[in-house]
Amino acid sequence: MPHDAPAITIRPIGSDEIPVCSRIFHEAETELRTRRNLPVEDPFDDGWLRSALMRSGLTDPAGTLLALDDDGPVAFGSAVRRDDFWFLAFLFVLPRAQARGVGHALIEQLLPPAAERDRVTLATMVESIQPVSTGLYASFGMAPRTPSYTLKGLEDPSRLPALPADLTPTPLTAEVVDACSDLTRELLGFARPQDLTLWLEDRVTATAYLRSDGSVAGYGIYDTDSWVAPIASTDEHLTAAIAGDLLAHQDRPQDAKIGVLGWSGTLLATLLRAGMRMDPDGFYPFVYCSTDASLPHPAYVQYAAFLP
After folding, report:
1. What residues contact residue 241 under an 8 Å CB cut-off, 6+ apart?
2. Across the 308 residues of the chain, what is the mean pLDDT of every consecutive 10-residue run?
3. pLDDT given at position 3
4. Do domains 9-119 and 151-301 have the same CATH topology?
5. CATH number belonging to the domain at 151-301, selected among 3.40.50.2000, 3.40.630.30, 3.10.50.40, 3.50.50.60
6. Which residues contact 245 (CB under 8 A, 6 or more apart)?
7. Which CATH number fits domain 9-119: 3.40.630.30, 3.30.70.100, 3.30.70.2740, 3.50.50.60?
8. Per-domain residue ranges of the chain
9. Residue 158 CB neighbour total at 10 angstroms
10. What's the whole-model pTM score?
């Protein structure tokens, strides 16, 4: 950091400071997109961001930090911890404060305690148009592992695979949250009952897929913005069938969106055959970065770029 740069103070955000984080995010993204000749969202709809930060406040109350200099807030970072898995959900710095080590300092304070880091997987998602950020995360061992593609618009539902005859879709309830959490642990190595419980409270459609003996073979969720995720099942072919079931029952399948890691080749091929396409206007993939060289299970579809 230059010797004449204003000193930086880092502290937890207050409950009323989420709009401050929203402003920082918007200014940083606007500058980045303008520099890359990409469309800028105007007006900016920050409902999803506020919801994500409020959710993090419920599950990880100490996981969102605000950085300030003499002129006020300049950056924020947010991370979640699930068992021995740590995920950097957000890290944004105002353009005027970039290249001053602020992001590095925020990550240092958000990381798990030093005594635990050897057994904790660190991960994040980064826009592929941000090479500086990618380099920052790599300096903490979070190397780029695989792209994540956003597919949009379902043209031909008839090309989606059908569910196996012995599976019954049923609304996801609190009674099967533990079984769904166990399935997530099998696929990803960590459980997330707190996330599943919150999804039950604010999602339009949350479905469990039950075998004839009542056991859970998978689950899937989609929201009012037509995002399909997360999805989990016992194998990647069943995940593709669950994705097809969720997409086929949406009111506006032509507006459907789903983010798929490049590792999930079966699901990607299935959705592309059904007419979903990568956004041609300003398309760029996200990149999954991690200290663990093993990739997320191909039978799992991540929730979003800010929560796996």
Report:
1. 160, 161, 162, 163, 164
2. 73 94 95 88 84 92 96 97 96 95 97 94 95 96 94 85 93 91 93 88 81 95 83 93 87 85 90 86 84 90 87
3. 52
4. yes
5. 3.40.630.30
6. 160, 163, 169, 207, 209, 220
7. 3.40.630.30
8. 9-119, 151-301
9. 6
10. 0.93
> What's the Cα-to-Cα distance from 23 to each of 28, 63, 206, rounded to whole Å?
9, 19, 31
Structure tokens that stand for 82 in this block: 């699930």
Give the C-alpha separation, 305 to 127, whole Å: 9
In this structure, the number of other CB atoms found within 10 A of the CB of residue 113 comes to 7
